[in-house]
Specification:
196 residues, mainly alpha, flat
Length: 196
Protein backbone atom coordinates (compact mmCIF):
# COMPACT_ATOMS: atom_id res chain seq x y z
CA UNK A 1 0.00 0.00 0.00
CA UNK A 2 2.89 2.36 0.79
CA UNK A 3 4.43 2.20 -2.71
CA UNK A 4 1.04 2.63 -4.41
CA UNK A 5 0.05 5.56 -2.18
CA UNK A 6 3.35 7.33 -2.86
CA UNK A 7 2.89 6.95 -6.62
CA UNK A 8 -0.68 8.25 -6.44
CA UNK A 9 0.42 11.20 -4.32
CA UNK A 10 3.27 12.03 -6.70
CA UNK A 11 0.76 12.17 -9.58
CA UNK A 12 -1.31 14.69 -7.60
CA UNK A 13 1.81 16.70 -6.76
CA UNK A 14 2.68 16.93 -10.45
CA UNK A 15 -0.89 17.92 -11.36
CA UNK A 16 -0.87 20.59 -8.65
CA UNK A 17 2.42 22.02 -9.86
CA UNK A 18 1.10 22.10 -13.43
CA UNK A 19 -1.99 23.95 -12.24
CA UNK A 20 0.22 26.42 -10.40
CA UNK A 21 2.22 27.10 -13.55
CA UNK A 22 -1.00 27.64 -15.49
CA UNK A 23 -2.43 29.88 -12.78
CA UNK A 24 0.71 31.97 -12.58
CA UNK A 25 0.80 32.56 -16.34
CA UNK A 26 -2.91 33.35 -16.45
CA UNK A 27 -2.74 35.68 -13.45
CA UNK A 28 0.20 37.57 -14.98
CA UNK A 29 -1.19 37.95 -18.49
CA UNK A 30 -4.90 38.20 -17.73
CA UNK A 31 -4.77 40.50 -14.71
CA UNK A 32 -6.59 43.43 -16.29
CA UNK A 33 -9.00 41.56 -18.55
CA UNK A 34 -12.40 39.93 -18.14
CA UNK A 35 -12.30 36.31 -17.09
CA UNK A 36 -14.28 33.34 -18.20
CA UNK A 37 -15.44 30.51 -15.95
CA UNK A 38 -12.35 28.37 -16.64
CA UNK A 39 -9.96 31.02 -15.38
CA UNK A 40 -12.12 31.56 -12.30
CA UNK A 41 -12.28 27.85 -11.50
CA UNK A 42 -8.55 27.01 -11.87
CA UNK A 43 -7.60 28.28 -8.38
CA UNK A 44 -10.29 26.09 -6.83
CA UNK A 45 -8.97 23.04 -8.68
CA UNK A 46 -5.46 23.75 -7.42
CA UNK A 47 -6.64 24.24 -3.83
CA UNK A 48 -8.70 21.04 -4.09
CA UNK A 49 -5.67 19.10 -5.39
CA UNK A 50 -3.58 20.54 -2.57
CA UNK A 51 -6.18 19.67 0.07
CA UNK A 52 -6.63 16.15 -1.28
CA UNK A 53 -2.89 15.61 -1.34
CA UNK A 54 -2.48 17.07 2.15
CA UNK A 55 -5.13 14.77 3.60
CA UNK A 56 -3.64 11.82 1.73
CA UNK A 57 -0.17 12.72 3.03
CA UNK A 58 -1.29 13.15 6.62
CA UNK A 59 -3.14 9.81 6.58
CA UNK A 60 -0.69 7.61 4.66
CA UNK A 61 2.87 8.90 4.20
CA UNK A 62 3.48 11.79 6.65
CA UNK A 63 6.54 12.93 4.73
CA UNK A 64 7.72 16.47 5.41
CA UNK A 65 8.47 17.36 1.80
CA UNK A 66 4.99 16.25 0.68
CA UNK A 67 3.35 18.31 3.43
CA UNK A 68 5.43 21.30 2.33
CA UNK A 69 4.44 20.92 -1.33
CA UNK A 70 0.74 20.47 -0.54
CA UNK A 71 0.58 23.49 1.79
CA UNK A 72 2.45 25.54 -0.79
CA UNK A 73 0.04 24.51 -3.56
CA UNK A 74 -2.93 25.50 -1.40
CA UNK A 75 -1.47 28.91 -0.57
CA UNK A 76 -0.50 29.56 -4.20
CA UNK A 77 -4.00 28.68 -5.34
CA UNK A 78 -5.49 31.05 -2.78
CA UNK A 79 -3.07 33.80 -3.82
CA UNK A 80 -4.00 33.32 -7.48
CA UNK A 81 -7.69 33.41 -6.55
CA UNK A 82 -7.25 36.67 -4.62
CA UNK A 83 -5.32 38.25 -7.50
CA UNK A 84 -7.68 37.04 -10.24
CA UNK A 85 -10.79 38.16 -8.30
CA UNK A 86 -9.06 41.47 -7.47
CA UNK A 87 -9.43 40.97 -3.72
CA UNK A 88 -5.80 42.13 -3.54
CA UNK A 89 -5.41 45.50 -5.28
CA UNK A 90 -2.16 44.27 -6.85
CA UNK A 91 -1.25 42.22 -9.90
CA UNK A 92 0.57 38.89 -9.84
CA UNK A 93 3.70 40.71 -11.03
CA UNK A 94 3.60 42.59 -7.71
CA UNK A 95 2.41 39.69 -5.53
CA UNK A 96 4.92 37.04 -6.61
CA UNK A 97 7.24 37.60 -3.59
CA UNK A 98 4.45 36.30 -1.37
CA UNK A 99 5.21 32.88 -2.84
CA UNK A 100 8.59 32.98 -1.08
CA UNK A 101 7.02 34.11 2.18
CA UNK A 102 4.47 31.29 2.11
CA UNK A 103 7.07 28.73 1.03
CA UNK A 104 9.38 29.67 3.90
CA UNK A 105 6.56 29.46 6.42
CA UNK A 106 5.31 26.09 5.14
CA UNK A 107 8.82 24.63 5.00
CA UNK A 108 9.36 25.44 8.66
CA UNK A 109 5.95 24.10 9.67
CA UNK A 110 6.34 20.86 7.70
CA UNK A 111 9.69 20.22 9.36
CA UNK A 112 8.16 20.92 12.76
CA UNK A 113 5.29 18.53 12.04
CA UNK A 114 7.52 15.72 10.82
CA UNK A 115 10.31 15.90 13.41
CA UNK A 116 8.42 17.52 16.31
CA UNK A 117 11.30 19.97 16.76
CA UNK A 118 13.12 22.64 14.78
CA UNK A 119 15.70 20.99 12.54
CA UNK A 120 18.64 22.94 11.20
CA UNK A 121 18.06 21.55 7.69
CA UNK A 122 14.56 23.05 7.60
CA UNK A 123 15.11 26.19 9.66
CA UNK A 124 17.86 27.87 7.60
CA UNK A 125 16.18 27.40 4.16
CA UNK A 126 12.80 28.45 5.52
CA UNK A 127 14.17 31.62 7.10
CA UNK A 128 16.06 32.36 3.87
CA UNK A 129 12.94 31.96 1.71
CA UNK A 130 10.83 33.97 4.14
CA UNK A 131 13.41 36.76 4.39
CA UNK A 132 13.95 37.01 0.65
CA UNK A 133 10.19 37.10 0.11
CA UNK A 134 9.85 39.97 2.60
CA UNK A 135 12.74 41.90 1.00
CA UNK A 136 11.34 41.47 -2.50
CA UNK A 137 7.86 42.47 -1.24
CA UNK A 138 9.30 45.77 0.01
CA UNK A 139 10.39 46.58 -3.53
CA UNK A 140 7.43 45.00 -5.30
CA UNK A 141 4.83 46.94 -3.33
CA UNK A 142 6.92 50.15 -3.56
CA UNK A 143 7.36 50.40 0.21
CA UNK A 144 11.04 51.30 -0.28
CA UNK A 145 11.66 54.33 -2.46
CA UNK A 146 15.18 53.38 -3.55
CA UNK A 147 15.68 51.16 -6.57
CA UNK A 148 16.41 47.47 -6.26
CA UNK A 149 19.51 47.84 -8.41
CA UNK A 150 21.04 50.41 -6.06
CA UNK A 151 20.21 48.28 -3.04
CA UNK A 152 21.68 45.16 -4.64
CA UNK A 153 24.90 46.98 -5.59
CA UNK A 154 25.37 48.31 -2.06
CA UNK A 155 23.97 45.52 0.11
CA UNK A 156 25.00 42.53 -2.01
CA UNK A 157 28.72 42.69 -1.22
CA UNK A 158 27.99 43.65 2.39
CA UNK A 159 25.73 40.61 2.77
CA UNK A 160 28.38 38.30 1.31
CA UNK A 161 31.02 39.76 3.63
CA UNK A 162 28.75 39.38 6.67
CA UNK A 163 27.96 35.77 5.70
CA UNK A 164 31.67 34.97 5.35
CA UNK A 165 32.46 36.52 8.75
CA UNK A 166 29.58 34.58 10.33
CA UNK A 167 30.79 31.27 8.87
CA UNK A 168 34.37 31.90 10.04
CA UNK A 169 33.21 32.87 13.55
CA UNK A 170 30.95 29.81 13.71
CA UNK A 171 33.85 27.58 12.67
CA UNK A 172 36.13 28.88 15.42
CA UNK A 173 33.35 28.80 17.99
CA UNK A 174 32.63 25.16 17.12
CA UNK A 175 36.32 24.27 17.44
CA UNK A 176 36.35 25.66 20.99
CA UNK A 177 32.99 24.29 22.09
CA UNK A 178 31.82 20.96 20.63
CA UNK A 179 28.28 21.56 21.95
CA UNK A 180 27.75 24.17 19.25
CA UNK A 181 28.00 21.57 16.49
CA UNK A 182 24.54 21.10 15.05
CA UNK A 183 23.69 17.52 14.16
CA UNK A 184 20.57 16.62 12.26
CA UNK A 185 20.00 13.19 13.74
CA UNK A 186 17.32 11.06 12.23
CA UNK A 187 16.42 9.57 8.94
CA UNK A 188 15.97 11.85 5.98
CA UNK A 189 12.54 11.99 4.39
CA UNK A 190 13.91 10.81 1.05
CA UNK A 191 15.70 7.69 2.39
CA UNK A 192 12.69 5.41 2.15
CA UNK A 193 11.22 7.00 -0.97
CA UNK A 194 10.58 4.77 -3.95
CA UNK A 195 12.24 6.24 -7.02
CA UNK A 196 10.82 4.05 -9.78
Amino acid sequence: MEKKSIKILNVFLILGLMFFAALFVIAVFESGKEHNIIIDILPFIQVALGLFGLIFTLVYTRKAYQIFIELTLISWGLLAFFVIKKIFPYTMLQCWPMIGVFSGLWLLLSGLYHYRKIKFGYFIPSITLFGLGIVFMLFSFNILSISFQTTALICGPLFMLAAAVFIICLYFAQKKNKKLILNDDGKDSFDDEVLN
